[in-house]
Amino acid sequence: MSPGQNDTAGERIAIIGAGVIGCALAWALAREGRRVLLIDRAEPATAGASFGNAGHIACEQLEPLPCPAVLRTFWRELTLFGGAVDLPVHRWVALAPWLARFVQAAFRQGRNTPALAALVAPAADALEAALREIARPELLVRHGHYALWLGPHAAARAARTATAAHALGVRTEPAPRELLQAVRTPGGTRDAAGLHYPDSGHVIDPRQLAVALAGAALQAGAVFRQAEVQELTPLGARVGVRANGQMVSVAAAVVCAGVQSTPLLARFGVPAPLTAERGYHLEMANTPPLIDAPVLHAEHNIIVTPMQGRLRATSYLEFERHGAPPDPRKIARLRARLTELGYTCAMPHAGWVGSRPTLPDYLPGLGRAPGEAPLFYAVGHQHLGLTLAVPSAHVMAALVAGRPPPLDARPFDLMRFGTARTAHR
Ligand SMILES: Cc1cc2nc3c(=O)[nH]c(=O)nc-3n(C[C@H](O)[C@H](O)[C@H](O)COP(=O)(O)OP(=O)(O)OC[C@H]3O[C@@H](n4cnc5c(N)ncnc54)[C@H](O)[C@@H]3O)c2cc1C
């Protein structure tokens, strides 16, 4: 089919990528009566980060990660020293431009926090409302989550964290004694302290959540097509989508392709300096949770979430190339740490690795490309894509409709990174 030729996709809005961001947007547009064409090379939420995340609705994470304190102390978190951050030496040259922007962003955290907070703070309520609307409220559990510290400095660390949370307006309360007693401490000592964050939540299966949103979109008239999108092209006031070798012209397109969004946007002059910030998970069946909520083991950067029929433990920030094979040492270390913490990790789960799509300032990219062609994007949701899927979808549905978004979306415009030519991977 040639560009511009009429086809069944003609008046549709194409969404490229059926991770949780694309699925939530498909639902938000379809419920407004828009004709949606959702495209992914794989079944919804199977190929990207949306399949394997921690399931935490992290409404407490109001601050973007880059800040002066992280610049001073990140080295302590490197895997080299037993931490969760891996910056492999063979990636230093490729990562240098991204890291330079990260350093710049560290000095803008104060300015960037209100923008991120406006999206994140209402996220659990927004997800709850969306799930009620699609009649799947059971997918979200609103028991909050817990952070635990072990060892002689545990109480001081918990107190410092509570003070910092309070300064941001995030509610915390001491974790219950039964939880502190249930966790195994190093050397069997009873030094444990913890906080409960009552306003967060978790989903019982991240993939099911995305599939439920996509299903609601399909019921409202959206169409799903399994295809690889090779290229997007401006066609006057329309957009050409070349998928599986065929070009179709659509009324508008939204790029939601996770860490692989950069080349799809370049043609429109939109810079998306995304990097793959990879995380791992292991699952444990037939293991009861310590409590019915995610538990963050803070020193180890491991979060253990009760999911349907199993526990899922996630960890690591590995700045490896997207698509590189998983590092078996990380999976083995995660398994060993979980066993130390008292979890039963006997099941031979092979482990999973996925790429968080992360921009150097840890704000998402939400907006419209400059120019006549109606090309939009919802990318770069870093550690918060599950949390932000519904709030971002509401912003994007407004931008696509040409009405004012529910919050100031200007800080999320990708043109903040200059031009596509000056941005880099
Ligand atoms: C270990 C781990 C734990 C996490 N924990 C949490 C958490 O607890 N809470 C939270 O809020 N967030 C969490 N996240 C982050 C969250 O998972 C991501 O931000 C989110 O899944 C990103 O969604 P996405 O739809 O943008 O990308 P993805 O889920 O990666 O989806 C992108 C989709 O685009 C498709 N695609 C790409 N290119 C093309 C193309 N050319 N043609 C066709 N299809 C294409 C891919 O096949 C894929 O399905 C975690 C991430 C990881 C890795």
CATH arch. level architecture of the largest domain: 2-Layer Sandwich
Mean pLDDT: 94
Our count of domains comes out at 2
The DSSP helix count reads 12
Briefly, what CATH class of the largest domain? Answer: Alpha Beta
| Structure ligands | flavin-adenine dinucleotide
Number of strands: 21
Shape: globular
CATH topology of the largest domain: D-Amino Acid Oxidase, Chain A, domain 2
Can you describe what's shown?
- The chain has 425 residues and is α/β, with parallel strands linked by helices.
- The protein folds into 2 domains: 13-51 and 207-273 and 361-417, FAD/NAD(P)-binding domain (3-Layer(bba) Sandwich); 59-109 and 129-203 and 275-358, D-Amino Acid Oxidase, subunit A, domain 2 (D-Amino Acid Oxidase, Chain A, domain 2, 2-Layer Sandwich), CATH 3.30.9.
- The chain has 12 helices and 21 strands.
- It has helices spanning 20-30, 49-52, 68-73, 92-106, 109-120, 123-133, 154-167, 177-182, 206-219, 262-266, 328-340, 385-401, and strands at 13-16, 36-40, 56-57, 85-86, 140-141, 145-150, 173-174, 192-197, 201-203, 223-226, 229-235, 238-243, 246-250, 252-255, 275-285, 295-297, 302-307, 310-318, 352-358, 365-368, 375-379.
- Strands 4, 6, 7, 8, 15, 16, 17, 18 and 19 form a 9-stranded mixed β-sheet that branches. The chain has a 6-stranded mixed β-sheet with strand order 10-2-1-14-21-20, covered by helices on one side. A 3-stranded antiparallel β-sheet has the order 3-9-5, covered by helices on one side.
- Strand 11 and strand 12 form a beta hairpin.
- The radius of gyration is 21 Å and the shape is globular.
- The two termini are 32 Å apart.
- The model is unreliable at 1-7 (pLDDT under 50).
- The structure holds flavin-adenine dinucleotide.
